[in-house]
Amino acid sequence: MDYGVLCLLPPVAMLVFAMKSKKSFEALIFGSLVAYIIMYGFRFIGPWCELLLGEISNYDNQYILLLCGLFGGFIFLLKEAKGTLGFSGLLTRLCKSQRSVLQTSLLMGIVIFVDDYLNIMTIGTCMNEVCDKKKIPRQALAYVIDSTGAPVCALIPFSTWVVFYSGVFIQERVIQEMGYTTGMSVYLKVLPFMFYPIFALIVVFLFSAGILPKLGAMKKAYAEADTPKEPVEPEMHNVKSVDIAMAGMAADYPPKTENEGRMLDFIIPIGALISVTVITGDMLVAIIIALAVCMLLYLPRKKMTFTRFVELFFAGFADILPVLAILLASFMIKTACGEMGLSEYVIHLCEPVMNAATLPAVVFVIIAVLTFVTSSFWGIEAVAVSIVVPLAAALNGNILLTLGAVVSGGVFGSHACFYSDATVLSSATCGIDNLSHAVSQLPYALISAGLASAAFLVCGIVF
Predict the structure, then answer these.
(1) 212-247, pLDDT tens digit by residue?
(2) Cβ atoms of 332 and 32 closer than 8 Å
(3) Cα 145 off chain centre by
(4) Which among 424, 431, 329, 430 has a CA at the least distance from the CA of 382?
(5) 263 exposure class (CB count in 10 Å sphere: 0-12, 13-18, 19+)
């Protein structure tokens, strides 16, 4: 059945709901319900439940959900072992100036790439006092660690971000027809076209090196840093309960001696994860082996008891459940929109006014704006991929470049959105107001976005 313009109602309803409620999971579920109400009327409940069961029983979906859950447990074990604190014991001794403090924070952000939450909490709690001693405003530290959160997780192919995008990419028939058999192989090809995270890292490096000047609210923060004040209680009204808990956990990570936090407790499990992934090409096998390595490394040395190990693993798995719910809901609305023929309708609608050269830049701008406004990253991108991939194929455009634009738009939203998890957690960990952090880093995020837009436009013309 041809639903025509009605195809647009589910994604529009989802976006309006997300903007009003600031909720990702609920918005995705609402969008799928709208789609099934349009298709089945008052008889929508039965088919919608079948959709839910079908997505849960789908093997590819199960693989992605299980992998993300195991990553959550792995991250909690790394936190408990305090392996990253070994880096702080070594690196903070190198901090002799404001520039070296920020560059050290930047380096740590690149090294701790597994998860943006782990990245933010570790660096913030390790470097807060160092920044205060060097009269560096907390806003600068928050900007650095926020910029090495999502951008680094997107660029290093061993993170929860990669797991998500790999699963979304490989589900597209056009991608499979191009000869790709795994989502990771697609992701590696898309990496060179992730211009926003690349430029975000370049800009934050220039800032930390003192080459890029202090702009806007950041300049004011530096001026006020000469008169020490008590840290402002972070604004938490937009934080989910899990974020509040994670921000509170920062208290468990005061500056430690290097003996309490050994680098090997971080390097060995991460090395096992990376090595097995490279050798087998299967991240599920790699994460299971990495968990086994954690057990063999931590338990004999009494870093934790077996009971504590199991409790932490399940706590980490539970902590990632909101992400798993969003993933499942995004699969549902993607299938629902596919059944309504959304991709075909959008292709037919856009073909007369769109061309292969401008498509990547337009996709980046649209995704960046939507994620910035709604704070719904993975849900919007999962739906967007199902639309832009067939559109790029129909226009004979560069599909990999277009996928890079989708990922870049999502990274911008996570980085720059005023109430995103990463932004709120960065400000909470650094002990500053959420709005103060968001406003002070916005000029630098916009510079990176402008450079990325230009890069997508040029590459769209060249490639």
Answers:
(1) 999 989 999 998 876 655 544 444 444 444 443 444
(2) yes
(3) 13
(4) 329
(5) middle
Query: Could you tell me which residues come within 8 angstroms of residue 392 by beta carbon, excluding any fewer than 6 positions away?
Result: 356, 359, 398, 399, 402
- The answer to whether the predicted template modeling score (pTM) of the entire model surpasses 0.85 is no
CB under 8 Å, gap of 24 or more: what pairs does 130-137 form?
130/92, 130/95, 130/101, 131/101, 132/228, 134/95, 134/97, 134/98, 134/101, 135/98, 135/225, 135/226, 135/228, 136/98, 136/101, 136/102, 136/225, 137/218, 137/221, 137/222, 137/224, 137/225
Q: What are phi and psi of 340, to 5 degrees?
A: -85, -10
Hunting for tokens 């028939």 — which residue is that?
173
Determine how many CB atoms are found less than 10 A away from the CB of residue 173. Answer: 10
Rounded to the nearest angstrom, the gap between the alpha carbon of residue 298 and the centroid of all alpha carbons in its chain is 28
34, 372 contact by CB (below 8 A): no
Dihedral sign for Cα atoms in the order 83, 87, 93, 96: negative
Give the Cα-Cα-Cα angle 60, 66, 68 (nearest 5 degrees): 105
In degrees rounded to 5, what are phi and psi of residue 173? Answer: -60, -35
* pLDDT tens, residue by residue, 49-94: 999 999 888 887 888 788 878 888 887 888 788 766 665 556 567 7
Q: Are 110 and 91 in contact (CB under 8 A)?
A: no
Residue 94 structure tokens: 């190198």
Structure tokens at 266: 């971080």
Residue whose structure tokens are 């072992």:
81
Q: Which of 446, 268, 307 is nearest to 368 (CA)?
A: 446
Structure tokens at 16: 């309006």
Place of tokens 């996570």: 414
- The position carrying tokens 């439940």 is 49
Report how far residue 223's alpha carbon sits from residue 227's, in angstroms, rounded to the nearest whole number: 8
**Cβ(435)–Cβ(237) below 8 Å:** no
Q: Cβ neighbours of residue 227 under 8 Å, at least 6 residues apart?
A: none
Q: What are phi and psi of 158, to 5 degrees?
A: -145, 65
C-alpha 56/C-alpha 372 separation (Å) is 29
Separation in Å, CA 216 to CA 112, 132, 303: 29, 21, 45
**Both tokens assigned to 389:** 């991939």
Residues 292 and 314: their CA atoms lie apart, in Å, by: 15
Burial 409-435, CB ≥16 within 10 A → b, else e: bbbbbbbbbbbbbbbbbbbbbbbbbbe
Among candidates 18, 24, 20, 34, which has minimal Cα distance to 340? 34
